[in-house]
Amino acid sequence: MPPIADILFFVALLVAAGAVAGLLAGVFGIGGGAVLVPVFYQVFGYAGIPEEVIMHLAVGTSTALIVPTSIRSFQAHRKRGAVDMDLLKGWMIAVPLGALAATVVAAYVSSAGLRLFFAVMGLVLAARMLFLSNRMHLGTELPGQPARFLTGSAIGLFSGLMGVGGGVFNNTFMTLYGRPIHQAVATSSGVGVLISIPAFFGFIYAGWGEAGLPPFSTGYVNWIAFAVIFPIAMLVTPYGAQLAHRLNKRQLELGFAVFLLFVSARFFWSLYGG
């Protein structure tokens, strides 16, 4: 068993991650999963959880936490009237369908495969934030069907595989078609709700009865990690929504891009560095 000081250190790390994830849920509408997944990966690895299930557990637990944080973020943004409800209503089937497909894929993909996907997508998203933010536009109106349905399904699929709330993908989609960043962020919180609820149940089903899971786990969701982070994330998420309407978005994008580069490098090192 690890020394008590190490246990307390990792609990403190989870607490800090919960605060950051909650703020990011409000600021970017991303659900905080991009922060939580790598933190869970480190903590679960230290706890001696088998390599075969560690990344699945990190993604599944992150998805469980996105459910309440995205709902709370959505409520805060909707009160401000910033959410594109028409887009969300049009994605009521497409986005959850993609999220459920992600849990099916995850059930057959190795832990290394999930890490590789997270690392590659992290690089792609970081590059977009660093070099293409607000500089590339594909039009002034969102595409019609079936392109919009396929886009929603892809957002649900990619987000589900990464354990994120879909904000980074939806923000990109909406801003490419000329929508204001604040509207994109607010709408992304609703996309997080559409992704996280079906993915949450999907990861429970996919991991049901899996060998090597730690105590207090239901499928690929660990309730100890959930219990540590949940109250903190719920407390700070509304403050993130307030900050989204005040802070310099470019500075926030750059900071998040650097974080994604660090996480991608960490996962690439775990795969090929030794």
Characterization of this structure:
This protein has about 270 residues and is mainly alpha-helical. The protein has one domain. The chain is about 75% helix and about 0% strand. The protein has eleven helices and two strands; from the N terminus they run H-H-H-H-H-H-H-H-H-E-E-H-H. The chain has helices at about 5-25, 35-45, 50-80, 85-90, 95-110, 110-130, 145-160, 165-175, 180-205, 225-245, 250-270; strands at about 215-220, 220. A two-stranded antiparallel sheet has the order 1-2. Helix 3 (about 50-80) packs across helix 6 and helix 3 runs antiparallel to helix 9. The model has no long low-confidence stretch (mean pLDDT about 85).
- Percentage of residues in helical conformation: over 70%
**What is the terminal separation in angstroms?**
25 Å
Output the structural class: mainly alpha
Total strand segments: 2
Q: Please give the domain count.
A: 1
Q: Helix count?
A: 11
Strand fraction band?
under 5%
The biggest sheet amounts to: 2 strands, antiparallel
Shape annotation? globular
- Arithmetic mean of pLDDT: 83
Rg of Cα set: 17 Å
Taken in chain order, the helices and strands follow as HHHHHHHHHEEHH
What would you call the quaternary organization? single chain
**Any low-confidence stretches, pLDDT <50, length ≥5?**
none
Largest sheet, order of strands side by side? 1-2
